[in-house]
Amino acid sequence: MQSVFSSDQLVASVFKRYAQKKLTPEFIRNETGFLCDALGIPHVGDPGRKVRAFEAKRAVQKDAEKATYYWYDPNECLDSEFKRLENLYSHPSFDSNVYRVVKFLDALKDKMVKDPLFADKIMAQLKMNV
């Protein structure tokens, strides 16, 4: 199944939502996945390729000191095509409840990786409240 949204739109939306914030490629990849889930569409392949293309067109900037960060500054963006791309977080198909659940589950997964007993602690807490 092909998405009705381009990978340009998806990646640009992430930058627009987090304007002025330094984003890592991993964050952009994860956030693009969360956005796809909230829109009910398949995940895009490699958002990193789009980020590099946007940087080459001067739509986003790469941190000179720590080359692993990118950011979007609407005042510095030189690409009018990028500026015209819709922010899909405000699209009618965007389901904010799905987005919040997916982000929450991802945070839980991260906590369980850092603390293998985290799930046991949560289950014990739930049993105490029943």
Give a topology summary.
Layout: H1 7-17, H2 25-39, H3 47-56, E1 61-62, E2 70-71, H4 80-84, H5 96-114, H6 118-129
Helix pairs in contact: 1-2, 2-5
What is the fold-level CATH name, i.e. the topology of the domain at 7-94?
Answer: Arc Repressor Mutant, subunit A
Per CATH, the class of the domain at 7-94 reads Mainly Alpha
Number of distinct beta strands: 2
Which class best fits the helix and strand makeup? mainly alpha
Helical content (DSSP H or I, runs of 4+): 55-70%
Contiguous runs where pLDDT drops below 50 for at least 5 residues: none
- Largest sheet, order of strands side by side? 1-2
Whole-number average pLDDT? 88
Radius of gyration, CA atoms, in whole angstroms: 17 Å
Strand fraction: under 5%
Major pleated sheet: 2 strands, antiparallel
Cα(first) to Cα(last) distance is: 43 Å
Oligomerization category of the chains in this entry: single chain
The number of helical elements comes to 6
Q: Which architecture name of the domain at 7-94 does CATH use?
A: Orthogonal Bundle
Order of helices and strands: HHHEEHHH
Shape summary? globular
